[in-house]
């Protein structure tokens, strides 16, 4: 790869990292001003490659590089939204790396015998609505009614946000079904420490773990913090705290199960008032669907027992559930050959993190490339990937595109 192409990719990653909805730290959420600004930048870069560009009402962008009219397209890309106080590589690398790979092919005068579609999805992290993959869900069909009814922290439903904040100007429908493409391949940082421990720059992904996201509510009685004896309290927050620890204990005892509580809200939220309501999220993941379902049932029983013992009302809502996904054998075979050609390695890893391929796998084959990230750190401002590792990931993608036959 020419150094100037790598340097341009690195500069674009840095530029996207400055596009944020927060004055400090990196935050881009579904249909936020920063998310749209990032999407517009990506569209400019796509146009610079001679791609036909468009966006949909939900903010997902697409660039099309034409190939044989008789061949189905191959999809590349990732997401443009972030978590709160995010790192700069998660998602952005997949979009920018795909464009860099096409730049390499252009400079080598390689004309692919199939079209390439590069997508920048508007929402994968699910920060705003706690309903992940809104971007990729949107391109495989209409969002379901329960998803449209999900509400953000301001009480706005997804349907209301699409109607009032959607990217309506010149919006087009981006849609894929089972007959629309030959597959989707994504370049992504590992978000773990395995590659670093193995001293490997990159590997190929074998599959993606199953995931469940929950919204849990514990409700008790607000009361005076100074006059209510401890044995008469119906404290929703202490009930929620016990639930959090029960989740942690379960996950520690049943590896590779992982569980996380990432958000909690308390009402009335005064220092001198006993909490009446505590609402929190749960993220539960496992590579085996049957095991995940079993642990989900155990967790609900544990939470229910805690609520009963503390005389609390208990609410439980599944806001997202995705089964484990295997990467496609044909794509993976060529990706492994490309990895070996570039790095000499032949490694594979499962992904504990979710990716847009989870949703796209319902209508097309998927494959993934992981590159090493420093300390395995992700969803954090110090997230970092070495330029040489990024170059290796892009080179693997280039080699894959050369080897892929429609």
UniProtKB/TrEMBL annotation:
Q: Which residues bind allantoate?
A: 213, 272, 285
Q: What residue range is the signal peptide? A: none
Instruction: Cite the binding residues for Zn(2+) 1.
Output: 79, 90, 188
Q: Name one GO molecular function term.
A: metal ion binding
Q: What cofactor does this chain's UniProt record say it requires?
A: Mn(2+); Zn(2+)
Q: Where along this sequence does the record place binding of Zn(2+) 2?
A: 90, 125, 379
Indicate the family of this protein.
Belongs to the peptidase M20 family.
For this entry, the protein name equals M20 family metallo-hydrolase
Source organism per UniProt: Luteolibacter pohnpeiensis
Its lineage reads: Bacteria, Pseudomonadati, Verrucomicrobiota, Verrucomicrobiia, Verrucomicrobiales
């Amino acid at each position: 790869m020419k150094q100037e192409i790598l340097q341009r990719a690195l500069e674009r990653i840095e530029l996207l990292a400055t596009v944020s909805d927060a004055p400090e730290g990196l935050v881009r959420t579904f249909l936020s001003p920063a998310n749209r600004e990032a999407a517009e930048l990506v569209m400019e870069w796509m146009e610079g490659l001679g791609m036909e560009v468009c966006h949909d009402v939900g903010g997902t962008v697409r660039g099309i590089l034409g190939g044989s009219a008789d061949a189905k397209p191959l999809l590349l890309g990732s997401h443009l939204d972030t978590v709160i106080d995010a790192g700069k590589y998660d998602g952005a690398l997949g979009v920018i790396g795909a464009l860099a790979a096409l730049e390499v092919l252009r400079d080598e005068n390689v004309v692919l015998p199939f079209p390439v579609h590069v997508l920048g999805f508007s929402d994968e992290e699910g920060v705003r609505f706690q309903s992940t993959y809104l971007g990729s869900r949107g391109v495989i069909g209409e969002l379901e009614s329960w998803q449209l009814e999900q509400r953000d922290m301001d009480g706005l439903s997804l349907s209301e946000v699409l109607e009032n904040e959607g990217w309506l100007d010149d919006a087009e429908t981006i849609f894929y079904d089972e007959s629309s493409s030959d597959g989707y391949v994504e370049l992504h940082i590992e978000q773990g420490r395995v590659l670093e421990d193995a001293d490997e720059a990159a590997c190929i992904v074998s599959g993606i773990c199953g995931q469940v996201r929950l919204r849990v509510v514990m409700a008790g009685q607000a009361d005076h913090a100074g006059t209510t004896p401890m044995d008469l309290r119906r404290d929703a927050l202490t009930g929620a705290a016990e639930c959090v620890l029960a989740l942690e204990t379960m996950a520690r005892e049943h590896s590779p199960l992982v569980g996380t509580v990432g958000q909690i809200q308390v009402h009335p939220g005064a220092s001198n008032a006993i909490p009446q309501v505590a609402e929190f999220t749960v993220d539960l993941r496992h590579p085996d669907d049957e095991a995940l379902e079993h642990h989900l049932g155990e967790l609900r029983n544990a939470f229910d027992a805690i609520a009963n013992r503390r005389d609390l009302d208990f609410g439980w809502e599944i806001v997202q559930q995705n089964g484990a996904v295997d990467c496609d054998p044909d794509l993976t075979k060529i990706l492994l050959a490309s990895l070996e050609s570039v790095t000499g390695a032949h490694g594979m890893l499962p992904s504990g993190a979710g990716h847009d391929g989870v949703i796209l796998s319902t209508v097309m084959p998927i494959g993934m490339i992981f590159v090493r990230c420093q300390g395995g750190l992700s969803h954090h401002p110090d997230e970092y990937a070495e330029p040489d590792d990024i170059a290796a990931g892009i080179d693997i993608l280039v080699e894959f595109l050369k080897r892929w036959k429609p």
